[in-house]
Amino acid sequence: MSGRNSLSRRRFLGGMAGGLFVTGLNAALPLPAWALTSPRKIHQGVTRYPARSYFDLKFSYSPLVINDKKGRATAINGTVPAPLIRWREGDEVTMDVTNNMEGTEHASIHWHGVLVPFRMDGVPGVNFDGIQPGETYRYNFRVQQAGTYWYHSHSRFQEQTGAYGPLIIDPKDGEPFHYDREHVIVLSDWAFEDPETIFRNIMLDPEYYIYYQRTVFDYLNRIQEEGFAEANAELLPFRKMNMSPRDLSNVTGSIYTYLMNGHSPDMNWTGQFDPGETVRLRIINASSMSNFDVRIPGLDMTVVMKDGKAVKPVGCHEFRIGVAETYDALIRPAGDKAYTIFAESLDRSGFTRGTLTPAVGMTAAVPKQRPVPDRTLKDIGMGMMKGDYFGGMSDEMMRKMHQKRLDMQNPDIDGPKGPMPFMPDKNNPDVAMTVMDPKQRMDDPGVGLGNDGWKVLTYKDLRSAEPQPYSPVVDRELTINVTANMERGIFALDGKKYTEHPGPYLFRHNERLRLYLVNHTMMEHPMHLHGMWMQLENGGENDDIPFVHTYLLKPGEVASFRITPIEKGDWAFHCHLLYHMEAGMFQVIRVA
Hints:
- The protein is mostly beta strands.
- It has six helices and 32 strands.
- A hairpin with a 4-residue loop joins strand 22 and strand 23.
- Helix 3 packs across helix 4.
- It is globular.
- The N and C termini lie far apart (56 Å).
């Protein structure tokens, strides 16, 4: 046999460590066993996978076929998605990661949401040099947590081309809730177009892939429904900003195929249950650019974890999962019927789906897609907009903002001072929009949600069920502003792209910091902080504010977090929309 087709003992055992290599339906590139749908034996869940302490992971280019169309993937151990990795809390783990890709492209793995020494965090140019072709890098550290996480490349656009996989960490002292079976659900977006081409297109025209822009007929219909004055009260401010109420996503279903465990909607990933069981769904959004709204028609969900951390059980029928977030939900399917797991993109440009069933061959109806939502001024935190909210602020407004900054810097003011007003440079074309009065919007389910007659989870609903290890006393406050000029393809923090920023943000080791994030853009941004937890100040008591590693920040929103930097070093902080990060919405946090 040729080396390409032979299955050596070493390769077989390596496959067992992360999932057997079994060819999935309609895919030239094999799917790992955890992600498999098989017509002979429906996947039984991954509960029986053992926790291991050593993994051998190899990057390579591989062909991938989805819906009879062929592309090239960046595979890890020959599969997309990558193998399931399972650790145990308290164990020391080692991963040897080898770059077998041709050419000069480096590789990397970031253990998303996992607390590690900074040299193990896997961000080229920040805490290591990347893994060059032909080289192996050894990750080695002790596991300090449990829950549902994921891992992915942090090298250019490899995450978009398939370098991502689920990471499950079993608790050393048992789970905080009972379940009979579990399924890992990895959502992602696949494009057959070269990511470099996608990036170039949206930098030249951020609406390049948005085919659902409003038309004159939409405008006339709105006049008919609401009247001329009401319709123009919403439309004209957007036109003044040179923005659209449908700036929902830069990359859409016009080129994306949305996947569930590597399966397109037509391939229909399928998982089994026995009626009456409690099933744990570990849902991971491993997309590059797509936020999803997840529901299972006919079933209630009980959310029990956010970003790997336990929360007090909260019931819902739907939740929005931003890029890089994870949610664990318990369901209790009853009766001899199948159910559809439906994940619809925020912009309604497409969906992916799978089936939960008690028997082979059973399927359920796929819900009809909802219409494309229009943002309102309220959705971007503006209410009825006044001219001073955006660029071209009057001198009087600038004077008031400056005075407010001076007042907030007064050391005699006790208690939370709020976000520091953002003072844009009038001559800086990189900032198209400034929100003068950002709102806390954690009780808002998000654009396009909340009007369907069922319960939608909000961040306000989350209450931590984890011990509170940190002091309630805040030592310092810091504001970071999320800014952009989409028309120019500029995405930045505090008005400056990564390459233009004067230096890292400084966090003090073991301080108790309150971080305000303010979104001065028209889009949601999943903001991710490496190396430490953010505790979301969502109105809970000090001992039950939830832990997050990623937060989907709404337009016009201010959100505050308490942070205790426990590990010294340089850490990445960025928007997890991949092309926004690469365009400059990225910065280094230095803990010293």
